[in-house]
Amino acid sequence: MDSYKHKKVITIGIVNELTGLSERQIRYYEECGLIFPKRSKLGTRHYSFTDIETLIQIADKREEGVQTNEIKRDFNNKKKRSDIRDEMLRGQINSHFNRRR
């Protein structure tokens, strides 16, 4: 079951209130590929608490003068490192349990 933090149920107006970002800024960060809201059949965007945390990180980095393309590169690098770490962990677990059989 998905954690409540990952459920995409929050509308853009609420995200605006929680983050202080304008709806235009939020949509721009979506266009940049920094966040990925779910769309309803009518096209309404829905965000998760994880998306809100990401938007706050983006806003903090922008205040520090970091450009959006640098933020995206940093996020992609973190994801790659996380994927590699997950793959290594899976390999270690599989190796450990396969040896014991």
UniProtKB/TrEMBL annotation:
UniProt-listed Pfam families: MerR_1
Domain HTH merR-type: 9-77
UniProt xrefs under InterPro entries: DNA-bd_dom_put_sf, MerR-type_HTH_dom, MerR_fam
Top-rank lineage group of the source organism: Bacteria
Molecular function terms from GO: DNA binding; DNA-binding transcription factor activity
Keywords: DNA-binding, Repressor, Transcription, Transcription regulation
PANTHER family tied to this protein: HTH-TYPE TRANSCRIPTIONAL REGULATOR TNRA, REDOX-CYCLING DRUG-SENSING TRANSCRIPTIONAL ACTIVATOR SOXR
Name the record gives this protein: DNA-binding transcriptional regulator, MerR family
Source organism per UniProt: Lentibacillus halodurans
Species classification: Bacteria, Bacillati, Bacillota, Bacilli, Bacillales
